[in-house]
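Sorry, explain these tokens?

***
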Amino acid sequence: MLSWFDGVRDLSFGAMALRLLLAVLCGTLIGLERSYKNRPAGFRTHILVCLGATLAALTALYLVLNLRLPADISRISGQVISGLGFIGAGAIIVTKKMTIKGLTTAAGLWTTGIIGLALGSGYYELGLLGTVLVLLAETWFSVLGRGIKRNPEYVMEVGYHDKNSLDNVLRFCKDSHMSITNLKIHTVEETEDVPPHYIAEISLRGNTASEQLLSQIRRMPGIISGLTL
């Protein structure tokens, strides 16, 4: 514990005002980085989350220490942490390509609320250090994350006549060390030029080249078409 803050760990008006101002500052610093990257939750949202959590912690302390009411400080903080999950869920978006975006922003909102609880409880050192670490995770660590080599992911569409043909395709993909992340099957009605058949959209992740894999699948018996989406 730093001795600088020893004089403002009580529940005087000056100490409470300092905690609220620090909550606004920490929420602003984290939120500005999110706003700069055009994320769903900007600096105002982060300020309100941090400020609200700080107010909840201060209220819990006031009820117990000043009014001597039989309130549970930890229970109030726990309710704040649970409620932050609903706010963070609003920042998570599932795109048309079935990819998830907004997880980092949601986690940042949740952590910002906990930083507010730390500040409201008078643990200034933890709140300020947590703010610095969150900023490092959202800036410098994101650069490191982009340098991580990932297996390519793509979607292929395969037309086939019977279920055994699809089973052979899926087995071949697994034998080729491809991870199947999603599978959708559509029925195609009969027309004058094309007999009735099925189309499978297969989402794959792996190191095998997509065109090389698809060319081998096209040569399988029962396969009538194949292309990469």
The mean pLDDT is 82. Residues 5 and 59 are 20 Å apart (CA to CA).
